[in-house]
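hey so u asked for the seq, here:
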Amino acid sequence: MELDFNGSLPECISLMNPFRDNPEVLSAVSQFYRKFYNDNKTRHLILGINPGRFGAGVTGIPFTDTVRLKEKCGIKIPGLKSFETSSVFIYEMIDQYGGPEKFYGDFFISSVSPLGFTSAGSKGKEINYNYYDSKELTGLILDFIIASLKKQLEFGIERDVCFCLGTGKNYKFLSQLNYEHKFFEQIIPLEHPRFVMQYKSKLKESYIDSYLEKLRLAAII
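ran it, structure tokens below
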């Protein structure tokens, strides 16, 4: 697997690349994709924003922290442990869909930017930084985003509908990109798992039901 960004970044913005930083991650990612994607089936694409510090920024697998990777997927990364609330939501949804094998047999999860970013917070602590948080960053990585999406479409991705995790800035950006490049016939927004878990946790089951209704409809078309 080769995934890296070698261009310029704004001052005080750093790139997260677990594939480059930890060889154990590359091994785990290879196990994951061999286990769930070693076939010729087509799948629908689900796009998040970009990897976060406790999910894909650690494991290399979108919306999958080390806990879910071990417990739900049967794959370990020696020496690493992470917990991400978005991963909790996604895997509860996956369980209700029918489990990882069934879900990943129908869907491929990625992100608009397949690599994540961090910035120094007010106390000097690293915090997540989204690709759309500054126009400068968005502009600098735009070609990388487009090239990555085009590459993923070669994986056997259905083009009728793409699901976008995030109903705000991520959906707006992806919709404009799709208007310009005609990647998909339709983009359907789903509330971002992090938003649900942080602000709407009491309604988590209703959001999972909404996910399942929309995803299952696409899977049978």
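The beta strands are 13-16, 44-48, 107-111, 116-120, 126-129, 161-165, 186-190. The chain has one domain: 13-216.
lmk if thats what u needed
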